[in-house]
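Let us practice reading a record.
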Amino acid sequence: MERKSKRAVVLLSGGLDSATVLAVAKNEGYEPYALSFSYGQRHAWELQAAKRVAASIGVVEHRTVDFDLRAFGGSALTSDIAVPKGRTTQEMTGAIPVTYVPARNTIFLSFALAWAEVLGASDIFLGVNALDYSGYPDCRPEYIAAFEAMANLATRAGVEGRQAIKIHTPLIALSKAEIIRLGCGLGVDYSLTSSCYDPSPSGVPCGQCDSCLLRQKGFRENGIEDPLLTR
């Protein structure tokens, strides 16, 4: 099965990682189709960031799929559960935190797979990371490999030999500092992004959740200030 199209579906949350992945896909010559999700997340401000990032970097099309994972809950991002604050890096690498959303990446990738088949796109880009992350099981390389294998069994285009799905995870082995360095080299405007799990109604980051702390650590290790903190 050959890749005849340079179209790619890029999962775009509006965060630092997904903005970088979109820039990587664009830099590699793909025609990006950005896909975001309104899933009942408490940090829905990120969807405004996704729109800004898509417009800044440039996409063929940007769609937002609307569904509600609050129907199941089970996460601090979709239920009335406090978002952990002020944790150390060691604490973040311990047990899977309550900010894990059950099966979220599987759901997101399934939507991406469906759109990729319709578009005739063989490539899906995802900003998962297995180093500076909070222990999420659906960010691991073995999970991505398993989903890719499944994806190539799951579609009509794959069965008919018209499409070979490849899931690209260019950030998976990078630290947050390395991701920021990569993005800066590609011209990503990180002032447009939103990483916080518990922002104010106007999008001001809390500065203390795991995502904020990892982001600040990455900028600090590059010797530059997070543009969200200089507004």
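A brief commentary: Helices lie at 16-27, 46-57, 89-92, 104-119, 141-154, 156-159, 176-185, 210-221.
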